[in-house]
Amino acid sequence: MEKFRELVDELALKVLTVEAEDLPAMGEVLKKVEELLGMAQGEGQRILELVKGCLEKLLLEELQKEKGQKFLVDGLKALQAHLRGEKVEEGLYRQAEELGLKEREDAKGKEEEVKKGETPDEISLGEDVELLQGFIVESRDHLSTIEVKIVDLEQWPDDPEVLNAIFRPFHTIKGVAGFLNLRQINRLAHALEDMLDGARKGEIAVTSPFIDLILEGVDLLKAMIDDLEEAIKEGRTTLKVFPVEEFIKRIEGVGEPSEKLLGEILV
């Protein structure tokens, strides 16, 4: 918890100095928020989700700069107060609602429409190239971390720290991919994140098929990231379509009662 507080304090200080026009700096702030979301729970998670939504709207120029930056500062102050054990003022949530940061039912419906069919993602080769290249490097680092931690998971399938260490990189990849409108990567990382969250909550058993799916998901993400890199080099704005929805159906099928815990299999 102390480490989490330190990271929140650092982020709050960063937000005071960052300018909405500074896209790389704003992208870095978003990345830090995503990392904190992987560790947050309850009201802290709720506040960070709103801060994340505000950042995304600012980056997409869907929010007035002054109002957006004020909410970022207010949101992180509220989070700091929450961590001190103080009550979060309802005014923060009213402010979020006024800015359109709360999820609406019509937005959910549009998201479901996107999920039904797989269409090629389009990328911008203008100002976004630097952000895309940074995403490629960081995502490969995250995937390497996951592969290393899988060895630990095979030995200690019930260890929450190991599960968290695998959950967080997927969570970060999901968030940044969503910001960059890389829908296929975002969808797959989100599904893997949800599967791991189920394991963290004890709702899904960590079995051999579970671990195999993580590794296959890592391979599929690597292939999509490789395609993104090739597209940038070739000047191609349309990315290849990968069997993401088919793979997600397999993810949704894990956790059947008949599956044995990996610890039982290895005995």
Category by helix and strand content: mainly alpha
Tell me the helix content.
over 70%
CATH domain fold name of the largest domain: Four Helix Bundle (Hemerythrin (Met), subunit A)
For the termini, the CA-CA separation is 35 Å
Brief overview:
The chain is mainly alpha-helical and 267 residues long. Helices cover 73% and strands 0% of the residues.
Helix-strand layout with pairing:
Elements: H1 2-17, H2 23-37, H3 42-59, H4 65-83, H5 90-98, H6 105-116, H7 129-155, H8 160-179, H9 183-200, H10 208-234, H11 244-252, H12 262-266
Helix pairs in contact: 1-2, 1-4, 2-3, 2-8, 3-4, 7-8, 7-10, 8-9, 9-10, 9-11, 10-11
How does this structure look, described?
With 267 residues, the chain is mostly helical. It has 2 domains: 2-102, Four Helix Bundle (Hemerythrin (Met), subunit A); 114-266, Four Helix Bundle (Hemerythrin (Met), subunit A) (Up-down Bundle). The chain is 73% helix and 0% strand. Helix 7 runs antiparallel to helix 8 (160-179). The longest helix is centred in the middle third of the chain and has 27 residues, at 129-155. It is globular, with a radius of gyration of 19 Å. It starts with a helix and ends with a helix.
Overview features:
267 residues; mainly alpha; Four Helix Bundle (Hemerythrin (Met), subunit A); 2 domains; 73% helix; 0% strand; globular; disordered C terminus
